[in-house]
């Protein structure tokens, strides 16, 4: 089993389509034998980043839900 630590910018690729998103999404595939760890602060930072992108127009309101 592999243990991975993702920072906010890496985890954001799971929710926002950008370079590296496909690779990051693969880490969460059901057949992967890995555990992903994040810092508690990551949830706040990720929420802020996604809302900021929505306000900037690169993510639609529908994609936020």
Task: Record the SSE blueprint.
Layout: E1 2-5, H1 8-12, H2 21-27, E2 34-37, H3 41-56, H4 61-64
Parallel strand pairs: 1-2
Overall domain count: 1
* Number of helical elements: 4
- In CATH, the topology is named Rossmann fold
Give the total of beta strands: 2
Relative helix content = 40-55%
Q: Can you say what the CATH homologous superfamily is?
A: 5'-nuclease
Second CATH tier, the architecture? 3-Layer(aba) Sandwich
Question: Any idea of the CATH class?
Answer: Alpha Beta
Content-based structural category: alpha+beta
Low-confidence stretches: none
Reading side by side through the largest sheet, how are the strands ordered?
Answer: 1-2
Mean pLDDT: 89
Largest sheet: 2 strands, parallel
Quote the distance from N terminus to C terminus.
32 Å
Question: What shape does the CA trace take?
Answer: globular
- Please report which band the strand proportion falls in: under 5%, 5-15%, 15-25%, 25-35%, 35-45% or over 45%: 5-15%
Give the C-alpha Rg: 13 Å
Helix-strand topology string: EHHEHH
